């Protein structure tokens, strides 16, 4: 997608926000100011996909007051960072975007200072949770700065997508732990809630709300955004096992170590090749040779091919859905291009 405003416009809003928070935190405690500095760094390096979705939709639908759209776009980037921070704590991930997570950084600090490993882990987890909480609060603070009648609707959009994201995350954990069965239908529903809502449908709807679009347009964007989110997550699950960690910026053994229930794994279930090594799936001490055995089984079982075929089928469905909308041709073209990018992305 093309950007309505330079990426620097959103980055400027975020930089000013973090500068203010660091200034306010510094008199309170050095470690609290450090938390805010690390939160600022954790928001760097992303694709700014959600701001782009919001800004391009706002432009395509004839929106005015681009400064308000920029503030709302920055709010969705904070929301994204907040959920990543919480996700890292839940999944025990130590790397994100090619560098240590906030949780890992504070845990390492504590270990270096001489704290026992368990206490250091608790300090890291508390810092990650609090950091995510702070950025969720900040999301609403930025939305409150938007002027005009769309502000209330934006607040409702944020609340709704968070409600759905929490449902999806709860499902994800339940499926991984085995406290709920993850059928293919349930896995797809989890993706719609966890990723489709806040990452795609919500910023598209927000851009439309700021442009004063009608309810039919918003409903079309909701459908398209949800479908794009599922496509994104399917590809993400493939990259989580078969991707290049140097490009994705995160581990390619984490999903296997955490026993993450995905459609990739569902395709392999009951196949002899997978059954032979299934005991390694979810092993907290899984090493790279063990992960390679699991990857080989996913290939031998046909799961990787099945997943690739599903991603292509979903891409075609999304493109067809976009084509049936009444959205402006330029926006349809942008969204179609995005679907192609999501299906083939390597990072």
From TrEMBL:
Its cofactor is Mg(2+). It holds the Pfam family polyprenyl_synt. SUPFAM superfamilies: Terpenoid synthases (SSF48576). It is an enzyme of class 2 (transferase). GO terms for molecular function: transferase activity. InterPro entries: Isoprenoid_synthase_dom_sf, Polyprenyl_synt, Polyprenyl_synt_CS. Keywords: Magnesium, Metal-binding, Transferase. Its EC number is 2.5.1.-. PANTHER family: GERANYLGERANYL PYROPHOSPHATE SYNTHASE, SHORT CHAIN ISOPRENYL DIPHOSPHATE SYNTHASE. Belongs to the FPP/GGPP synthase family. This is Polyprenyl synthetase family protein. It comes from Promicromonospora alba.
């Amino acid at each position: 997608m093309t950007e309505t405003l330079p990426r620097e416009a959103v980055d400027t809003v975020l930089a000013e926000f973090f500068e203010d928070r660091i200034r306010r935190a510094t008199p309170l405690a050095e470690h609290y100011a450090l938390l805010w500095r690390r939160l600022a760094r954790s928001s760097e390096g992303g694709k700014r996909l959600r701001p782009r979705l919001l800004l391009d939709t706002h432009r395509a639908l004839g929106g005015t007051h681009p400064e308000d759209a920029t503030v709302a776009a920055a709010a969705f980037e904070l929301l994204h960072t907040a959920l990543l921070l919480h996700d890292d704590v839940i999944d025990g991930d130590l790397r994100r975007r090619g560098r240590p997570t906030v949780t890992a950084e504070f845990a390492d600090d504590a270990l270096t200072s001489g704290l026992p490993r368990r206490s250091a882990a608790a300090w890291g987890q508390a810092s990650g949770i609090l950091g995510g909480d702070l950025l969720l609060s900040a999301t609403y603070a930025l939305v409150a700065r938007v002027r005009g009648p769309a502000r209330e609707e934006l607040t409702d959009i944020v609340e709704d997508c968070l409600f759905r994201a929490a449902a999806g995350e709860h499902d994800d954990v339940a499926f991984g732990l085995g406290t709920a069965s993850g059928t293919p239908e349930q896995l797809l529903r989890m993706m719609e809630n966890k990723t489709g809502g806040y990452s795609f449908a919500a910023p598209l709807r927000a851009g439309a709300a700021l442009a004063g679009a009608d309810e039919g347009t918003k409903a079309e964007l909701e459908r398209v955004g949800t479908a794009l989110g599922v496509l994104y997550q399917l590809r993400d699950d493939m990259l989580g096992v078969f991707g290049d960690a140097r490009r994705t910026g995160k581990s390619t053994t984490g999903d296997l170590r955490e026993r993450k229930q995905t459609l990739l794994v569902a395709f392999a279930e009951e196949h002899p090749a997978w059954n032979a090594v299934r005991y390694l799936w979810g092993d907290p001490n899984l090493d790279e040779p063990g992960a390679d055995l699991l990857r080989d089984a996913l290939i031998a079982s046909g799961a990787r091919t099945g997943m690739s075929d599903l991603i292509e089928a979903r891409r075609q469905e999304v493109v067809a859905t976009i084509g049936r909308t009444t959205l402006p041709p330029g926006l349809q073209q942008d969204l179609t291009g995005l679907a192609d990018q999501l299906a083939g992305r390597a990072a």
